[in-house]
Specification:
The complex is a heterodimer of chains A (111) and B (113).
Chain A: E1 9-13, E2 18-23, E3 31-38, E4 45-50, E5 55-56, E6 61-64, E7 70-75, E8 84-92, E9 105-110
Parallel strand pairs in A: 1-9
Antiparallel strand pairs in A: 2-7, 3-4, 3-8, 5-6, 6-7, 8-9
Chain B: E1 4-7, E2 10-13, E3 19-25, E4 31-37, E5 43-51, E6 54-57, E7 64-66, E8 76-78, E9 87-94, E10 103-104, E11 108-112
Parallel strand pairs in B: 2-11
Antiparallel strand pairs in B: 1-3, 3-8, 4-5, 4-9, 5-6, 7-8, 9-10, 9-11
The chains are: A mainly beta (111), B mainly beta (113).
């Protein structure tokens, strides 16, 4: 079973920030949080990952709560091309062999 | 740098036929895996490999075989195709076990009639 819980769908207006939540209340100390997205029927695409500090790259920001039990992926200025299913995964580097995806959040960007 | 390459992109099989889905990566990644995705569903792990000569089962391994004779290649075999195996299949690779900064192929859309 997936170790994360995400809302099945969300809407966001184009140009606004999209904030996608993920609950991982059973996360252990050596597990990272990873985010992927899947646009239409393409292969999933890596977005960002973090351990406990907030992270930012050219695609998104990742905010992890201090207790690490939840996180939020932020797309700062959503465009129609960000319409996709977003997956949140937790995994321990060099320990977890089975990388399990949940059902993710389907993000609709509204024009 | 091609990344992860899957062939074929589309395939139609008759029930009972066998076939091999090919997956190759050119990044010298140790970890490779196969997922299937059914309409409206997330990705389900079929088999994975943590290195050449080592494979193991994922969530839904029945009806599929794999082998890993080289670091680059990780083929998925359907021994006797069934309509329930109609799906989109994705291959992925990453540098290490548990490192889910993974690269995915573009998928193979398989229909079993």
């Amino acid at each position: 079973d997936a170790k994360t819980t995400q809302p099945p769908s969300m809407d966001c207006a184009e140009g606004r920030a999209a904030n996608l939540p993920c609950n991982h209340s059973t996360i252990s100390g050596n597990e990272y949080v990873y985010w992927y997205r899947q646009i239409h029927s393409q292969g999933p695409q890596y977005i960002i990952h973090g351990l406990k500090n907030n992270e930012t790259n050219e695609m998104a920001s990742l905010i992890i709560t201090e207790d690490r039990k939840s996180s939020t992926l932020i797309l700062p200025h959503a465009t129609l091309r960000d319409t996709a299913v977003y997956y949140c995964i937790v995994s321990a580097w060099r320990r977890d062999d089975k990388i399990i995806f949940g059902k993710g959040t389907r993000l609709h960007i509204l024009p | 740098n091609a990344g992860v390459t899957q062939t074929p992109k589309f395939q139609v099989l008759k029930t009972g036929q066998s076939m091999t889905l090919q997956c190759a990566q050119d990044m010298n990644h140790e970890y490779m895996s196969w997922y299937r995705q059914d309409p409206g569903m997330g990705l389900r792990l079929i088999h994975y490999s943590v290195g050449a000569g080592i494979t193991d089962q994922g969530e839904v391994p029945n009806g599929y075989n794999v082998s890993r004779s080289t670091t680059e290649d990780f083929p998925l075999r359907l021994l006797s195709a069934a309509p329930s195996q109609t799906s989109v299949y994705f291959c992925a690779s990453s540098a290490d076990r548990g490192n889910t900064e993974a690269f995915f192929g573009q998928g193979t859309r398989l229909t079993v009639v």
